[in-house]
Amino acid sequence: MSEATQKSVAAPSNFIKTIVERDLAEGKHGGAVRTRFPPEPNGYLHIGHAKAICLDFGIAADYGGVCNLRFDDTNPLKEEQEYIDAIKQDVRWLGFDWQERELHAADYFEQLYEWAELLIGKGKAYVDDLSADEIREHRGTLTEPGRDSPHRGRSVAENLDLFRRMRAGEFPDGARVLRAKIDMAAGNLNMRDPVMYRILHATHPRSGDAWCIYPTYDFTHGQSDSIEQITHSLCTLEFEDHRPLYDWFIKELEIFPSRQYEFARLNLTHTLMSKRKLKQLVDSGLVDGWDDPRMPTLSGMRRRGYTPESIRDFCDRIGVAKANSTVDVAFLEHCLRQDLNRRAPRRMAVLNPLKVVIENLPEEHDEELDAINNPEDPDAGSRKVPFSRELWIEAEDFREEPPRKYFRLAPGREVRLRYGYFITCTEVVKDDDGNVVELRCSHDPETRGGQAPDGRKVRGTIHWVSARHAVDAEVRLYDHLFTDEQPGVGSVINPDSVEVLGGCKLEPALARAAPGEIVQFERRGYFCRDTKSGDRLVFNRAVGLRDTWARIQKQQQQG
Question: pTM for this structure?
């Protein structure tokens, strides 16, 4: 784990709160606090957006303000209603409510157009005929100034005429753009006459075909903030170089002075944090949609078994910093594990079944044993689990020749059945190929509930399921989508990112689990019933029981 990762988790901070508290102390904006979460509806939200959501809505809640949900929907070529609906579902699932304040940049198109004409009238914007490649060539580099477009000197009248004709649909896509007239020699490339409008004859999911010119993000974002009188516009660090342009538009238009503040985005090991790259995975069929449980999207994490409480806790604990860092994904899993340990009911499930026959029980034997629902929750109570002559146990819980420190079942060895009896293996049954297919055992009827009256101890406890009562299920074991700690363009999908197990044997109570319900399979991990498998009983592993993060922390403390 990198030093940056350690600091981001060990010393969470929130400099944004310091700024807000200073503004309130100074009476700025009349003591109002207004934030916004401004997603572009061109994909599904991921865990990085969760950090922004928690910050935007959290700051407003902490200081008695409001937070708007505003869709920055300025590109009809990439935006869809599906994404809008999914974003709203994710924000609500995380536990936040924008009330009646669902807003769209598209609703401000007329106002933005009027402001564009205002800038043209002030000589601060012009229509350019250069192509996108030519504009890029004229922009210059970080070490060389840009060059003026040959159309930069057009008159106000000519620019207004051309811009109005652009709106009227007279020109094809890409024929002309509207650019701000700032400084082609500016050290910040964003200030070198940025594009404000481009021609796109495309249907918009909200405004339909009312427009054939669309404002760019840079021209839309700050002005939308100003229209909504956003006091603290919180953005990730990649927008830091855009802030001078944000301020320039507000100053030249003489509108409400919204202020942009930048914070470090969330980076996680083994995780892609780019909607564009995640969309490529979806479009290429490398994953099973945006809600594939291996995806870092909120919909994928929800399907896998993550809880909103664990994600909010994670975002709170990593803090809000000014410098980029990378957080180990093990810490996110740690937060989930802590949350589920408190709330998830315990159940028994055998994923790789091996039959056990208890020979000193009659074939018709059928009884119920008491099992604790959750030892971490005193109010969770207990349940009855059926017990019969034939059981299923995990194949890995038996070794014909047990290695050293192996305390589970072996020939002649006694172990405890969870909530049940002590059993001893008396015979091993194999098939013609020498594979173990069945174990013959005896049980001690005096050890019901897992205690021996004579006080003898056994070191091994294993889980089990009554064969007569078991329900069959499919279980999916998920791992990181990428083996690379810092996945990039050349990274390939982890071939072991999902393992599908059929024929798993579950205690009968799990047949009634609702889609999305999360339980702990004792000794195996936390599992969520899949929400897209219909009536089929399918469980996705959310996280295992082994706490990698706790091990990392222990190693750090030791040295």
Answer: 0.92
Q: What is the identity of the amino acid at 455?
A: G
Q: Say if residue 191 is in the same domain as residue 49.
A: yes
> CA–CA separation, 196 vs 392, rounded Å?
67
Domain-located, residue 337: no
State yes or no: is 438 an active-site residue.
Answer: no
Task: Indicate the pairing of strand 382-388 with strand 366-372.
Answer: antiparallel
Domain boundary among 263, 279, 301: 263
Distance, CA of 103 to CA of 542 (rounded, Å): 34
Catalytic residue among 34, 36, 40, 154: 40
The answer to whether residue 265 is catalytic is yes
The pLDDT tens digits for 277-310 are: 999 999 999 999 999 999 999 999 999 999 999 9
Query: Domain containing 554 — which CATH number?
Result: 2.40.240.10
Domain C-terminal end among 420, 444, 466: 466
Nearest to 373 by CA among 363, 384, 382: 382
Residues 437 and 482 in one domain: no
150 and 47 fall within a common domain: yes
Residue-number span of the structural domain to which 110 is assigned: 32-263
Dihedral sign of CA atoms 405, 408, 409, 414 in order: positive
Residue 290, token pair as written in the block: 């945006």
Domain-embedded: residue 325: no
Domains of the chain: total: 3
Which one of 70, 176, 275, 337 is the catalytic residue? 275
DSSP codes of every residue in 198-251: EE----BTTTBTS-SEEE-HHHHHHHHHHHTT-S-EEEEGGGGGGHHHHHHHHH
pLDDT digits (tens, 9 = 90+) for 15-63: 999 999 999 999 999 999 999 999 999 999 999 999 999 999 999 999 9
Picking from 263, 215, 338, 297, the residue whose alpha carbon sits closest to that of residue 56 is 263
Is the pLDDT at 557 greater than 80? The verdict is no
Q: Is residue 168 part of a domain?
A: yes
Residues 54 and 169 in one domain: yes
**79 classed as catalytic:** no
Under 8 Å between Cβ of 476 and 498:
yes
| pLDDT grade for 556, boundaries at 50, 70 and 90 | low
Model pLDDT, residue 400: 94
Roughly how many angstroms between the first and final C-alpha of the chain, as a whole number? 14
Out of 265, 343, 440, 448, the active site residue is: 265
Dump pLDDT digits (tens) for 374-400: 999 989 999 999 999 999 999 999 999
172 and 200 co-located in one domain = yes
For 65-119, how does the pLDDT look when each residue is reduced to its tens digit (9 = 90+)?
999 999 999 999 999 999 999 999 999 999 999 999 999 999 999 999 999 999 9
User: DSSP labels for 291-332?
Assistant: T-TTS-BHHHHHHHT--HHHHHHHHHHH-B-SS---B-HHHH
Predicted confidence (pLDDT) at residue 550 exceeds the cutoff of 70: no
